[in-house]
Amino acid sequence: TGVMVIDATIPIGLGQRELVIGDRKSGKSRFVIDIISNQKGKDMICVYVGVGMQAAKAKATYELLKLREAMEYTTMVVSTSDDPPSLQYISPYVGTAIAEHFMYSGKNCLIIYDDLSKQAKAYRQVSLLLKRSPGRDAYPGDIFFLHSRLLERSSKMSRKLGGGAITALPIAETQSGDISDYIITNLMSITDGHVYLDANMMHEGILPAVNSQASVSRIGSKVQSSLLKKVGELASRSLARYAELKSFETINTEVAEETLRDIRRGKKVKEMLAQLSSVNYSTDEIVVLLHMVTADKIEMIDLTELGTFKLQFLEYYRKIVTEQFKQKCEKSKDLKEIDGEVSVILERFLRQRSQETKTKTD
Prior knowledge:
This protein is α/β, with parallel strands linked by helices. The protein is 51% helix and 12% strand. Helix 4 crosses helix 5, helix 6 runs parallel beside helix 7 and helix 9 (226-245) crosses helix 10.
């Protein structure tokens, strides 16, 4: 996806269905738009399905994708909030039919449903007008089948059948962080995992606001390279440890040095996973950045300077990295195989940074 927190801790494979949930204004639409933008040059066809969207938002989404040159490989299917419920109900099926055309042609396709909770409400309206018996929350009895027959069409074909795939990212809106809602739980049982976007993290300015502790991918590390899997596990462990220990920051008592180190590392991992919109990270870049922070190689860098450090380091790294090292990051089995080279790259970068700072001061 090009999104560091997803590729490292909640990996998504071809043909997977990964639910994206979160409260209103938690950055769900922007998150999937960034993923679409990151598919540029990766031979991936994208289908964006907007259900019951405001016309202004649909236009803004189109303009943003056009600005990022993503419309060259993206098809938009939109039913607005002014359209009749029957049209809002059927638009995800139209988008899926388009995606299936590409899948059966042997191509990889990414489909976004924004969002399926609105489709469920539209289907409820249609069912009530048809005088069908209402069930829980006035939804008809076949509401589960509505989404299962839609999402089960996302899959990975065998080589014999062309090798194409549809990867689905359905979106559903939660109310005040409640993930026990009827439609949400239905979708969670159908999909292969979920990404939870935390409104509190959004308000703190952490983007993307992915709560990796509350998210899950049932495909998991099976689709990751060995090194990406290892740094992802170390990063997840550091975040979990930080979540346990962060209460110690507010308590005015003596804390063991090891505990303080775990807290500092957790904070830096959290900051390292933050990502500006439209920024794309490759596998080797994620491996190098997360290895540096989880192995305490950048302890000398203050937390407040980490964002600037990351941008400057990546600018340097992209100039000097060799294709051989990139392959090593993707194919090696042990972090020890790249540890020495990462230390050398970091040392050279810090020396150059120090010289540039000294020159500016002089």
